[in-house]
Amino acid sequence: MLQGIPITSVLIVSAFMFFAGVCGFIIRRNMITILMSIELILNAVNINMVVFNKFLFPDQLQGQFFALFIVGIAAAEASVAIALVINIYRRLNSISVDKVNEMKY
Amino acid sequence: MNYSLTILILLIPFATFLFNGLFGMKLKPIISGLIGTIGLGVITLLSYLTAWQYFFVDGMVNGTFPKIIAMSMDWLHFTDFLTVRIGIMLDPISVMMLVVITTVSFMVHIYSLGYMEGEKGFQRFYAFLSLFSFSMLGLVVATNIFQMYIFWELVGVSSFLLIGFYYTKDSAVAASKKAFIVTRFADLGFLIGILLLSFFTKTFDFKTLTGSDQSIFANAAGVNFMGISVMTWAAILIFMGGAGKSAMFPLHIWLPDAMEGPTPVSALIHAATMVVAGVYLVARMFPVFYFQAPEALNVVAYVGGFTSLFAAVIACTQYDIKRVLAFSTLSQLGYMMLALGVSGYGGEEGVGYMASMFHLFTHAMFKALLFLGAGSIIHAVHSNVMQDMGGLRKYLPITHATFLIACLTIAGVPFLSGFFSKDEILVAAFHHDKLLFAVEFLVAGLTAFYMFRLYFNIFWGKEKHYHHTPHESPKTMTIPLMILAFGSIFAGYIPFHKLVTSDGMPFESHMNFAIAIPSVLIGLIGITVAWVLYKKETTIPERISKGLGGFYTAVFHKFYFDEIYLFITKKIIFNYISRPVAWFDRHIVDGTMNGIGWLTVTSSKKIRNLQSGNLPQYGLVFVLGAIILVLVFAFII
Q1: Model pLDDT, residue A105
Q2: Can you spell out the DSSP letters for B287-314?
Q3: Strand partners of residue B89
Q4: How many CA atoms lie within 13 A of B244 on its CB side?
Q5: Is the dihedral of CA B457, B459, B465, B467 positive or negative?
Q6: Which pLDDT score, from 0 to 100, does residue B577 have?
Q7: B138: left (phi over 0), alpha (psi -120 to 50) or beta
Q8: What would the pLDDT profile of B261-291 be if each residue is shown by its tens digit?
Q9: Are strands B224-225 and B228-229 parallel, antiparallel or unpaired?
Q10: Which helix (H) or strand (E) holds B61?
Q11: Residue A98: its chain B contacts at CB < 8 A?
Q12: Neighbouring residues of B265: CB distance < 8 A, sequence distance ≥ 6
């Protein structure tokens, strides 16, 4: 599936996704969006895993398995995070990250 | 024969102190008092038995009285070399002191049952009396100089507590503080002296220090400080401690004020026992003084001589009867110190040492009697001042008779105890130093004069208007007076030269009539002068004091020593030393610490805002940090 596509192109895509995720994480105020940004970062990492596995060690599968693990963990993490967001919404009537600064105390 | 029971002499008063101190307030006062008194009666008996056993049953070994260690245990064990022991040592002077202390203390215990009756804090009073008896007995039986120092301080504390017994009275509180601070200051010298002495001799033990083996002092040979040998320094510093406790000039200022305490306390602590601790200390260390530091012994002699004259002169002008007795005590303590100072070592030479201990013994009897008599008088007329008294002989027959006996004894009238001991002191002084002899001779006359001035003013003279007729004191008070009067008369017949001598060997002592007769005569002159001046109320004393003018005023104000001390402490020490030191403490020492605290608080406040709780900001910092790390690893390393 990756035949004919040079590794650099794939890495550029992954880097682009990663920084888009980081930017979203820093800039956005909506918690759901921040959660989505985190998913973007994780998926950028997944792409890297698969690509390096394919190009450097074609006989082995560790990289791809790792990608699968990360997908699984990301799903669990998303469910926890959304549960938190729902609770925060119930409490504060808002899901803006600016409002959630009480944990510093 | 063993002396294992002697440990009880220390333990019983300690037990009664604890019991009365902890549970006394729950008991009826009289029961608490009886517990203390009976406890003391038991140890008095034990002391007599010990003395009997020591002097007459066991007696001498090879012609000397041995130093017996009845008990000894390690109290603080640092190394095998440096160990502080607590124990009981019996030798002639400690056994004699046991007898003196328990006798006087027992008398005072009985007397206080009457004198302190109905006072608030009666149980507390008895607890403190027991504490004092315990510490004083521990002091005299000390086996080593460190144990002595420990009990020395305990004695100081009990004195402090008892002077300040009436703690609601400002003057009593001030007097107790004064006594404690002055003696404590002197004890600083004592401690340094102990350290010096034991540093060079490597021992605390009295038996080693005062033994015949002089090689332990080898280390100190040739060590000098400011041109004076180190052993002399040690001896002078130890004497400083003794001078503080015995109220020698110039540390005498606390004793007259200590009369603020209850009168039985003055009799016990500030006349008969505690104040002679200084004399006892010098006597205990006598071989060290004599062989290693003869110059220090001269200091002892001259300080003692000066104090006795100085105090006798002041005593002639005071009106508070307890103060007259206090200055008289000072004067007599001066006598004892002087006798030690002029003494030689061994045999006839050591007559001064023997005389000093002898006088200590007789003085304890008659001075305790005088104080208890004064207490009885105060009890009857409710005043301390001579002007409020007069013609009391009709109302207080027993007090009058016993007081007269004590006055005759202290004046040195023949065949009473004071005559014998004072005569020995004069003999010793005569053989050593004619100047000191002249001083003591004069003081003997002055003593007779001021004691009889006191006597005539109280018991003769014009009768004053009393609020209610004075009445004789109860039996509990008069019986101790009679017993002590008996002691005052007959204590002089104890053959001290056979029992208590500088080297433990008895010697033959003879009456020296060439000295005894003039000293009796000057005593009689003193009595006669007092008779003429004070028997009937006349204007002669007033005219004499007017005639003396400025000198009389100076003497009346005790040569302004209290004022000088106040000037030195308040004006000089407080202003020029304490204040700068306090300033340094408050601003530099405290300032440093406060500065550190302030810096921490302020910097924490400043960096606190970094933790905003704002998630995107954390993320940004995190990312930037990661990028910086990547750059560092990529380009620099």
Answers
A1: 63
A2: HIIIII-HHHHHHHHHHHHHHHHHHHHH
A3: B69
A4: 23
A5: positive
A6: 85
A7: alpha
A8: 888 888 888 888 888 888 999 888 888 888 8
A9: antiparallel
A10: none
A11: 614
A12: B108, B129, B162, B163, B165
User: Between B612, B619, B623, which is nearest A101 by CB?
Assistant: B612
CA atoms of B256 and B323, how far apart (whole Å): 6
By CB neighbour count within 10 A (0-12 exposed, 13-18 middle, 19+ buried), where does B597 fall?
exposed
Whether the predicted pLDDT of B83 surpasses 90 = no
Residues B155/B184, Cβ–Cβ less than 8 Å: no
Check B616 against A25: CB less than 8 A apart.
yes
Q: Which of B113, B117, B102 is nearest to B43 (CA)?
A: B102
Chain A contact for B620 (CB, 8 A cutoff): yes
* B300 Cβ contact list (under 8 Å, min separation 6): B239, B282, B289, B337, B338, B340, B341
What average pLDDT does the segment B326-331 reach?
89
Nearest CA in chain B to A26: B616
Confidence category of residue A1, pLDDT binned at 50, 70, 90: low
Secondary structure in 3-state letters for B355-424: HHHHHHHHHHHHHHHHHHHHHHHHHHHCCCEHHHCCCHHHCCHHHHHHHHHHHHHHHCCCCCHHHHHHHH
Task: Band the pLDDT of B1: cuts 50, 70, 90.
Answer: low
Residue carrying structure tokens 């408050």: B586
CATH numbers and ranges of domains, chain A: 7-99 (1.10.287.3510)
**DSSP secondary structure of B162-194:** HHTTSTTSHHHHHHHHHHHHHHHHHHHHHHHHH
Candidate ranges A72-76, B80-84, B113-117, B289-293; pick with highest mean pLDDT: A72-76
Residue whose entry in the numeric block shows the structure tokens 């759901």: A32
Q: Over the range B2-19, which residues count as b (16 or more CB within 10 Å of their CB) and which as e?
A: ebeebeebbebbbebbeb
Alpha carbon B415 to chain centroid distance?
29
Determine whether B346 is exposed, middle or buried from the number of CB atoms within 10 Å of its CB (0-12, 13-18, 19+): middle
Query: Residue B131: CB partners within 8 Å, gap ≥ 6?
Result: B13, B14, B17, B21, B154, B157, B158, B161
User: In the block, which residue shows the tokens 């008092």?
Assistant: B33
Q: How far is A65 from chain B (nearest CA, A)?
A: 26
Q: Who's near B290: CB < 8 A, 6+ residues apart?
A: B297, B343, B344, B345, B502
The pTM of this model reads 0.78
Model confidence pLDDT, tens digit, residues A15-44: 999 999 999 988 888 989 999 999 999 999
* Whole-angstrom distance, CA of residue B370 vs CA of residue B385: 15
| CA B88/CA B54 separation, integer angstroms | 14
Q: How far apart are CA B319 and CA B337, in angstroms?
A: 27
Q: Give percent of chain B above pLDDT 70.
A: 99
Q: Quick one: which of B4, B17, B9 has its CA closest to B98?
A: B9
State whether A101 and B616 contact (CB < 8 Å).
no
Over residues B86-98, the mean pLDDT reads 87
- Which residues of A fall within a CB distance of 8 Å from B613? 100-105
CB–CB of B424/B353 below 8 Å? Answer: no
CA-derived radius of gyration, chain B = 30
Judged by DSSP in three states, B90 sits in strand
Distance CA B427, CA B177 (A): 39
Q: Show residues of chain A in contact with B619, CB under 8 Å.
A: 22, 25-26
What type of residue sits at position B301?
A
